[in-house]
Amino acid sequence: MNTRIFFELLAREAPAVDFETPIAEARAAGASPADLAELEQAKTAALRVRALLARRARREVELSALFETASDLAGLRDLDAVLNAIVRRARQLLGADVAYMTLNDPSRGDTYMRVTDGSISRAFQTLRLPLGSGLGGLVAQTGAPYASSGYLTDERFRHTGSIDGGVTEEGLVGILGVPMRLGERVIGVLFAADRAERSYAQEEVALLCSLAAHAAVAIDNARLLQETRVTLEELSAASEAARVRGDAVERAARAHDRMTDLVVRGGGVEDVASVVTDILGGSLVVLDADGRRLAEVGRVDRVDEDLITRARTLGRTARRGDLRVIPIGAGAEVLGTLALHAAGDIADADERILERAALVMALLLLFRRNMTEVEGRVRGELLDDLVAGHVSDPDALDARARRLGVDLGADHVLVVARHGGRRERAAFWASSFSAAEHGLSTAYSGEVVLLLPGHRPEEAAARVAKELGAALGLPVTAGAAGPVDLPGGADAARREARRCADALLALGREGDGASADGLGFVGLLIGEGGDTGAFVERTLGPVIAYDERRGTALTLTMAIYFGTGGSLARTAERLHIHTNTVTQRLERIGRLIGADWQRADRALQIQLALHLHRLRGSLPP
């Protein structure tokens, strides 16, 4: 028998009744029972294929409808519009008489009717269902779908007068309800219902579940948009907002990539700051935890202290006018502050760039601090060895110093700084400072010791006292000695520097810095070796040199002048010259060593220097 006719029927999508025609024609033509049986088998197979194709076509239509639904929902931003669209599409997809939605109310512990489509009963449209009551209340409580072909007589559900009354007034018989989930949480129930008995197929339950899944996401998105008061008026406005946000996201991603690349390549806080201003414009300053400037791009005259305090208290961006201040922190610890003076308006999305920059800077500052602490320990160990005299192998010591960027063959001064602050903070400052100066440092309780390149201990002591004092917010007293004879002279230099610091404190000069030379004749008492020649040279050098060049007697005149109690007449008498000549000589001395040379404190040092000069045989008794 020819069974190809069934393929032709399938090909032209003929109705099911047409598949009986070939059998009827064969029977009319007197076909044998075997041929008729063969045709019957071919017909049955063809109808199965036709049913399978029909199911697949229907599934394709359903999937297409779901995609269209998702697209429609994505274009809606108003919550009421979203809910109405969901219920209307549910009714269309399942061919139901009525579709409706209930939303859970956590504050009252029930679920209430929110939107209906096709409903005519006011009582039905205002129903509230206790959790566990009725078909909808059971779905809302258990999170499982339920269906009933005849709800009012279905004993699986706990019936209440209000629910049954609303269902009766609406005339509903068959009801299908599926949960709308957000994660593990059920936020409501989506229903399809008919005014006649209806058994819902598994495919229809699955279809409504898929729509409910889309609905839950759409509802949550719409609710979030309402909570943040973001409304889109028209489709063109929505498209523009999406474009702007996309640009901001892409800009933030580019900024993040650039900052990450900088960190990988060893960039610092200054480089990250440059990336921010390159993308957002304006000018930016980065402050450390104490308010000192770590980096600056553009000109930022001053940052509002109140705004810094508010940003650090809130732990997030604080704004005032065109200024944005973001704290740089690691956990509860504040490492610094980032402040941007914007060149124009900055979108909220662009502020994420600032927050990412603050996070990257926090990582850099933590890394820098850890590296400084490690390097500080290494530098401290080397300085401890120098001071303690552990120099069994000078070549090895030089190698250790070179690895730290320190040249022990150059001139160095040693500074001892006394402070009343925290040891950890003082040690961190000393380590950072000495590393920047290519020197060494070590810290003890209440004291830091620094070995710094240079040959001017007085200047080094004053600088350390000022800068460490500013870092700690406390007075720091620093004594210095040098140049130091390395490696063997470090211990002697430390003792002298400590004596200088002690002398400053004894003299009431807390917060100052000085060396033995700077302390004048006091330095002779505390200095290592008591170099009287250097003291005389510092005090009288220009006058002595003038006498040697010109053959004058200014030094002798000064000695006699002090010896006569400052009497011009007696000085002139001793020198056998006129008083006007004495006056001229004294004026010359003032021009050589300063007009204040007769001030009490200087006069005391000058007289001591003259006495030492005489003891050395350079002046007549």
UniProtKB/TrEMBL annotation:
Pfam families: GAF_2, GGDEF_2, HTH_30. It comes from the Bacteria. InterPro entries: CdaR-like_regulators, CdaR_GGDEF, GAF, GAF-like_dom_sf, PucR_C-HTH_dom, PucR_C-HTH_sf. Residues 78-229 form the GAF domain. Signal peptide: none annotated. Belongs to the CdaR family. This is Cyclic diguanylate phosphodiesterase. It comes from Actinoallomurus iriomotensis. The lineage of its organism: Bacteria, Bacillati, Actinomycetota, Actinomycetes, Streptosporangiales.
